[in-house]
Amino acid sequence: MEEIIEQVGANCGAHIEAYSKCVDLNPQNWKTSCISLEKELSKCSEKYSKRLLEAKQKCSDFTAKYEACLSQNQLVPEKCILELKDLYNCTNEALKTKPAAQN
């Protein structure tokens, strides 16, 4: 996981900063206000970390459930803690598996 964070941080720092700033400036509607920045950050992250892309693909159902919950509960995102935990567990499990090229 640290390797992925380092890769994304080194290559997508400007995207991370722009997205974080947008979220901070839009606490009530960050999910809709910052969607384009979120997509740019996601694209950049996937470009520089194939393992992250693999995890995202493996956990797409959990991601969809979490995003749907956030959309329905923008003012109280705490309601989505179970969906977040499920997504976290899936991602963690997916990242434990070494990519095929490294086996």
UniProtKB/TrEMBL annotation:
InterPro entries assigned: CHCH_domain-containing_protein, CX9C
Family annotation (PROSITE patterns): CHCH
Domain IMS import disulfide relay-system CHCH-CHCH-like Cx9C: residue ranges: 5-46
GO-annotated biological processes: cellular respiration
GO cellular component, one term: mitochondrial intermembrane space
PANTHER family (alphabetical): COILED-COIL-HELIX-COILED-COIL-HELIX DOMAIN-CONTAINING PROTEIN 5
Name of this protein: IMS import disulfide relay-system CHCH-CHCH-like Cx9C domain-containing protein
Organism: Smittium simulii
